[in-house]
RNA sequence: GGGCCCAUAGCUCAGUCAGGCAGAGCGACUGGCUUUUAACCAGUCGGCCUAGGGUUCAAAUCCCUAUGGGCCCGCCA
């Protein structure tokens, strides 16, 4: 097979042949909960950024928070009476829903920035309101206003939509009602760097500065940002990519108005949530990124994005398939002789700032439930199972697993170790009772720590009449045990019944090593005597 | 109406840029570890690469067309 090049390296290759220095940019409007789909954008950008660095480049990586955009409407998660008055105002200028953040925008932005940290993504974060307020857009605003007609013509040609007579590439913030989407531009003064307007909504007329007095409309602002930041590559969702969409118009505005070459587009597909369809804030199909990071180890989430080409749909299902995803990642990470391509995916999934426990997620699912979620017990079990790790890292994964079990795990993956002998123990047969007693003796008699294989072996030795456990069973049963009852299935079942109150569970040897030996001895003896 | 993306094993997908033996993981099945349980190891099964045409010595790959699915063209990635 010919060597496969990872998509991020393909993009990086193309970028380096086109540009001497590359600037990756990405931007999201923090108008609502930022979800896992948005994370694809920054992770896609991060992949290309890493690939460029691996090629010896020194690229820049910006994350632009479009917090100067207006609040479009009162979203379902907002209170009508609180936010109706703020519709149309820039989200950087309206109050935070919880009162803990500087602004509405920061309320959603801050958790997202924290999530990027968790995932090992470190772009230079810029807020659009700060760029405007610092005057970075002044030149672009002047250029746009002077070329208003040419831009309007491009927009009409590209999008096929008629541009309104009173359209302007600049949206002033009305000083009367503070809205950014209602005032009509009536003129501008290039030397004074001001724009004058009439606001039909509140009747105000006035003059605002090009520095912080308003913003360019999206289709013009995007190419302006390319020029101002020198963007050479940018991932964006397919909504911008369609013909007549904002990338199309952006190309022409960039070249014809700003005299600047547009960035290399990296179009990515949407993440579908299970069977529910596309992730979308408005339809309510949404898993916020913090919800996701509560459950998925960061490297596994990176892995999901890295292994899939951007233009492919990703089906994300936080139930059983999530377990498989994490498992797949762990297997690949720990693979002895991975291919170059596999190594590449793993290395892009890792980040030096992100640590993930070596304990397989699946095993943690068992450990966690054995320990009943108690962190000290989990640490102890992990040690006993041979994982010598920083408790902090173990606890992080335990936290993930606990929430996963609580929120998404399918019922067959769940079990609970009963605090006392479960009532189901009443149904144990005499042979099973004899087995439990004999088994407890074996555990007690063990002169060393029993490993998973040892435990499995002891159970299977019941089939051998000469084995110590068989002899003890006969003793306890008070006579010879009928051959048809010597069935390991019976015995495993007894073990699960005594601990869980159900006839099956995680592979016994590995399951039992998660427990303290003396606890098992007591429990098995009790269960063997249990009569309601 | 205009456009974009996707379609490869039961499932999830690599492989398409740059044409050269049809691939991986999971699942299933079989076996191994003195051993039916959600661990481990080895192996097997599994595909008209959605369909039809074209280019080529050679096509999953490039070019047309069709079908199915997803989506965009009102500032939701």
From TrEMBL:
Chain span(s) of sequence motif 'HIGH' region: 30-38
UniProt EC number: 6.1.1.6
Pfam families, A to Z: tRNA-synt_1f
PROSITE patterns in alphabetical order: AA_TRNA_LIGASE_I
InterPro entries: aa-tRNA-synth_I_codon-bd_sub2, aa-tRNA-synth_I_CS, aa_tRNA-synth_I_cd-bd_sf, Lys-tRNA-ligase, Lys-tRNA-ligase_SC_fold, Rossmann-like_a/b/a_fold
Reactions accelerated catalytically: tRNA(Lys) + L-lysine + ATP = L-lysyl-tRNA(Lys) + AMP + diphosphate
Listed GO MF terms: ATP binding; lysine-tRNA ligase activity; tRNA binding
Main location: cytoplasm
Keyword Iron-sulfur: no
Entry's localization field: Cytoplasm
Annotated signal sequence range: none
Motif ('KMSKS' region): 278-282
Similarity comment: Belongs to the class-I aminoacyl-tRNA synthetase family.
Name the UniProt record assigns to this protein: Lysine--tRNA ligase
Organism: Methanimicrococcus blatticola
């Amino acid at each position: 097979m010919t060597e496969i090049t990872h998509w991020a390296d393909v993009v990086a290759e193309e970028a380096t042949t086109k540009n001497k220095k590359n600037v990756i940019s990405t931007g999201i409007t923090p108008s609502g909960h930022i979800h896992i789909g948005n994370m694809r954008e920054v992770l896609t950008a991060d992949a290309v950024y890493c690939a460029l660095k691996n090629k010896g480049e020194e690229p820049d990586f910006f994350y632009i928070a479009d917090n100067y955009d207006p609040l479009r409407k009162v979203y379902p998660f907002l209170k009508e009476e609180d936010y109706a008055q703020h519709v149309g105002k820039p989200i950087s200028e309206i109050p935070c829903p919880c009162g803990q953040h500087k602004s509405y925008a920061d309320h959603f932005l801050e958790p997202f920035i924290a999530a990027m940290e968790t995932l090992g993504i470190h772009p230079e974060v810029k807020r659009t309101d700060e760029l405007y307020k610092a005057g970075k857009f002044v030149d672009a605003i002047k250029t746009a206003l002077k070329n208003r007609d040419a831009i309007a013509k491009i927009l009409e040609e590209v999008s096929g939509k008629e541009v309104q007579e009173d359209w302007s590439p600049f949206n002033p913030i009305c000083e009367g009602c503070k809205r950014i989407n209602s005032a009509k531009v009536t003129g501008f003064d290039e030397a004074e760097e001001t724009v004058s307007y009439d606001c039909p909504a509140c009747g105000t007329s006035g003059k605002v500065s090009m520095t912080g007095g308003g913003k360019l409309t999206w289709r013009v602002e995007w190419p302006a940002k390319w020029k101002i930041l020198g963007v050479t590559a940018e991932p964006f969702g397919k909504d911008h990519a369609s013909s007549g969409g904002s990338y199309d118009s952006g190309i022409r505005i960039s070249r014809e108005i700003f005299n600047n070459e547009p960035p290399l587009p990296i179009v990515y597909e949407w993440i579908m949530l299970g069977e529910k369809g596309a992730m979308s804030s408005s339809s309510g199909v949404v898993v916020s990124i913090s919800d996701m990071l509560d459950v998925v180890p960061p490297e596994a989430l990176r892995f999901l994005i890295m292994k899939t080409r951007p233009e492919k749909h990703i089906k994300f299902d936080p139930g059983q398939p999530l377990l498989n995803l994490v498992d797949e990642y762990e297997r690949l990470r720990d693979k002895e002789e991975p291919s170059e391509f596999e190594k590449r995916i793993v290395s892009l999934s890792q980040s030096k700032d992100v640590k993930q426990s070596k304990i397989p997620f699946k095993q943690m699912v068992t450990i966690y439930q054995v320990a009943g979620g108690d962190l000290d017990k989990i640490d102890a079990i992990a040690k006993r199972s041979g994982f010598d790790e920083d408790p902090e890292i173990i606890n992080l994964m335990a936290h993930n697993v606990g929430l996963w079990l609580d929120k998404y795990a399918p019922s067959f993956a769940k079990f609970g170790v009963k605090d006392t002998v479960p009532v189901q123990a009443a149904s144990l047969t005499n042979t099973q009772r004899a087995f439990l007693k004999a088994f407890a003796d074996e555990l007690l008699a063990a002169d060393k720590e029993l490993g998973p294989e040892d435990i499995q072996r002891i159970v299977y030795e019941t089939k051998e009449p000469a084995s110590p456990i068989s002899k003890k069973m006969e003793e306890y049963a008070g006579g010879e045990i009928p051959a048809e009852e010597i069935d390991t299935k019976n015995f495993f079942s007894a073990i699960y019944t005594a601990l869980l109150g159900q006839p099956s569970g995680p592979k016994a040897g590995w399951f039992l090593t998660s427990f303290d030996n003396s606890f098992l001895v007591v429990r098995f003896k009790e269960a063997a005597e249990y009569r309601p």
